[in-house]
Amino acid sequence: MAGALKLEGRTLASGWSVIRAIGWDPKTGASKEIYNGTGGNFSKAYLVEKNGRQAFLKAIDLTRPLSSDNIVNALLEALTHHKFEVDILNICSGAKLDRIVVAIDSGEERLSTDLKDVVPYLIFELAEGDVRKTIKEIKPDLKRSWWLRAMHHAAVGLNQLHSKKVAHQDLKPSNILSFGQNDGFKLADLGRSTCETHQGPFDDMMFSGDRTYAPIEILYGYVNPNAFERRRSSDAYMLGSMIFFFGLGLGATPLILSHLPRDNWPPSFPGGWDGPYEDVLPLIEHAFTRAIAQLREAIGDDEISDELVTCARQLCEPNPSERGHPLTRAQVGSNFNLERYVSKFNLLALRSSVRARLDK
């Protein structure tokens, strides 16, 4: 059994006591609940405690690469990914990015001299859970102001990352964590991120995140040759996709595809389209219009909803050259600067909160 699967009940050399496994059964290794602190490939999660403070531990499982056909390459991949994540977390921690979940400790636990019992780990502040879980506990009349605050904090988090030349690339419901009423929300899991100033394992990939939430053009192989702008565009799209998730329970991309004939789906989903993105774009724009209408119907037709629909339309625009705020696009610089959306979601969250109190 891998060392990463044997930490429960131990006290680490760093002083952290491992309380229990999170999200998986230590007897079988199988997943059994929803919680995504900052999980990922080659890792297992635990609840840990030190000096009365509880936290989330991510332990790297080295037996998975050891069972690969090419052990050296697989082991190098796992360790490279781990080191890159540590480096990016150090950048975020040093810059005091308060809407990013950063590591509060890290190390390497050796259970024996056997390589499989060497456990590199990261320890993060403990969240209440991701937004999929925590939204279920919110009273119906407070839900909109709650998820608008989540949108605001997610936009702040992305803006903070972009200011350090980091693109998240994997923004989705499981990676927006709730830390309670006082601390709000933070973005987790930088394991698939890229950094313009720091070489990483995903630099050569068109998109490194979960393809279910990928911008629609990525699935059709459309590539902006400016890599960092492409990644900022992807982050903006995924931020807008969260409006669809909170309104309809489904991200923008699967919703758009649901309004397209399968013959026009990208091959990777799988579908029948094998032509250039520009040729299928008019059909996608039509499907997007129907998705926007579906969103509007779901979230209502008051002033706040109207502004949310506008944000969703701008951020998830299928044509990347027209994506983002029109005033930002008219300025010199990146089309995907999120400052205007930070302000917009903050204002909408405040207005929604006031309205919820007045309606009581």
What does this structure look like?
42% of the residues lie in helices and 14% in strands. Strand 4 and strand 5 (118-125) form a beta hairpin. It has helices at 63-66, 71-94, 131-134, 143-163, 180-183, 216-219, 227-248, 252-258, 277-299, 303-315, 326-329, 339-358; strands at residues 17-21, 43-50, 53-60, 103-110, 118-125, 129-130, 166-167, 176-178, 185-187, 194-195. The chain contains 12 helices and 10 strands. Helix 4 packs antiparallel against helix 7 (227-248), helix 4 runs antiparallel to helix 12 and helix 10 runs antiparallel to helix 12 (339-358). It has a 5-stranded antiparallel sheet, with helices on one face. It has a 3-stranded antiparallel sheet with strand order 6-8-9. It has 2 domains: 3-125, Phosphorylase Kinase, domain 1 (2-Layer Sandwich); 129-359, Transferase(Phosphotransferase), domain 1, CATH 1.10.510.10. The longest helix is centred in the N-terminal third of the chain and has 24 residues, at 71-94. The radius of gyration is 21 Å and the shape is globular. With 360 residues, it is an alpha+beta fold.
CATH superfamily of the largest domain: Transferase(Phosphotransferase) domain 1
What is the gyration radius calculated from CA atoms? 21 Å
Residue-averaged pLDDT, rounded?
Answer: 92
Distance between the termini: 55 Å
Following the backbone from N to C, one meets helices and strands in this order, namely EEEHHEEEHHEEHEEHHHHHHH
**Inertia-based shape:** globular
CATH top level of the largest domain is Mainly Alpha
| CATH topology tier name of the largest domain | Transferase(Phosphotransferase), domain 1
What kind of sheet is the major sheet?
5 strands, antiparallel
